[in-house]
Amino acid sequence: MNQIACISGVDLLMDYLEDVVSADVRQALDAHVAGCARCAAFIAAYCETPRIVRQATATGIPADVQRSLRSFLRDRRIGPDAS
Amino acid sequence: MVVPAAEPTDEALAARAAAGDDRAFEAIVMRYEGRVFRLACRLTSDTDAPDVLQETFLQIYRHLPAFRGESHFGTWVYRIATNAALMLRRARARRPAESLEAYLPRFDAHGVHVETPTELQAASHAEEILDRQFLAEKARAIITRLPDLYRDAFVLRDLEEMSTADVAQVLGIEAAAVRQRVHRARLMIRGYLSELVAVKR
Fold it and tell me: Which segments within chain B are labelled E, that is strand?
């Protein structure tokens, strides 16, 4: 597997990142990306995407939701304040 | 000098809670309620998440005696929470499937990216270019719009940062299927973020 097109590289990207591609596929992808500014840019954005969404959707638990949970469990006689 | 006592492991707490120690169960609730709530928000909605949270801890309490430690306790909790979220989602009116194909990368006849490097990397700049609140709203919106199969795998693997093997276990699918679904979700969301950045620029 000597040459690879961008479209094949994108198809294999997740497997490449999870290290489940063969050595020759890895080598072909590395060679392609080294000479392809488009793929290098694409991969940078692809790898950043999970972190951006993770941080943007990180939420804490509101105090009223915590209280409701304790009350729900207590009503079912679950937990230290059940009796 | 007082040496602080080591925190009990999840498995130790689970064993004590299963034997009827209510304080241990409360410690499990405190340790996991934030993570379960966040997962529930991502798999359902802010409105439904409190119900998922309650159902999850009810199920954990009921099934603790059956926990045998075959998986990590955290994975077991996530499986219960995910099932509770999916059950609740099924009970809701089914939303029409939406095509997000337009956000997938485009290629010419030779299989070469159509967009320029600057356009292809635009999603990386979402946090610099977009208002934080706006990005949070849009990120939540695009997760909701993903096909359910992609959403579940993406949330567990990429947002909750579980291993692919653990996601496969939680969803009851092969690791290869997890990778394929997460990949599709990443492609779509990258394209969506790129478009948001392009509009703002």
Answer: none
CATH code of B10-91, in short, is 1.10.1740.10
Q: What is the pTM of this model?
A: 0.93
Residues 105-144 of B with CB under 8 A from A: 105, 107, 110-113, 115-118, 120-124, 126-127, 132, 135-136, 138-140, 142-143
CA neighbor of B74 nearest in space, from B119, B14, B153, B150: B14
Q: How far apart are CA B189 and CA B157, in angstroms?
A: 14
CB-CB contact of A71 with B54 (8 Å)? no
What is the C-alpha to C-alpha distance for residues B2 and B99, in angstroms, rounded to an integer? 60
Instruction: Please write the tens of the pLDDT for every residue from A3-15.
Output: 789 999 999 999 9
Q: Which CATH class is domain B101-200?
A: mainly alpha
